From TrEMBL:
Entries under PANTHER family matching the protein: SUGAR-1-PHOSPHATE GUANYL TRANSFERASE (PTHR22572)
UniProt name for this protein: Mannose-1-phosphate guanyltransferase C-terminal domain-containing protein
InterPro entries for this protein: GMPPB_C (IPR056729), Mannose-1P_guanyltransferase (IPR050486), Trimer_LpxA-like_sf (IPR011004)
Gene3D superfamilies assigned to the protein according to its UniProt record, in alphabetical order: Hexapeptide repeat proteins (2.160.10.10)
Mannose-1-phosphate guanyltransferase C-terminal domain mapped to chain residues: 29-104
Pfam families found in the cross-reference section: GMPPB_C
Organism of origin: marine metagenome
Amino acid sequence: YLQVNADALDRKVQLEGISSHEPNGSLIRPPVLIGPNCHIAEESQIGPHTVIGPNCIIKNGVAIENSVFWAGVTVGAGSKIRNSIIAQNSTIGEGKNINEESVI
C-alpha cells in the first residue's frame, strides 16, 4: 500500500488530486500530495512520498515521511510519523513517535 502511493507520487502510475501547501515556514519535500481543506502548521516537515487526505490538521513541528493519511486525521505538535498508514479520523497526540510500518 505504501509502495503504490510512492509509485503514484513518482508518476509511475496516474493519480488525480490536489497538491498544495501553506507557505508558512513548513518544509514540503516532494513528492507530496495534500488534499483540500488541510492545515499544515508552522515548522512542520512533510515528505517525501507522503499523501495527506482531505480535512487533515497537522500541528506545529510535526515530521511526516513516507506515509499515507486518510481523511480527517489530526496530528499533535511535535509528533514524528514515518512509513505508516493513518486511517480516517484518527488523532495522534502531541510528541508521539509512530514507528516504521505502523497502521493506525
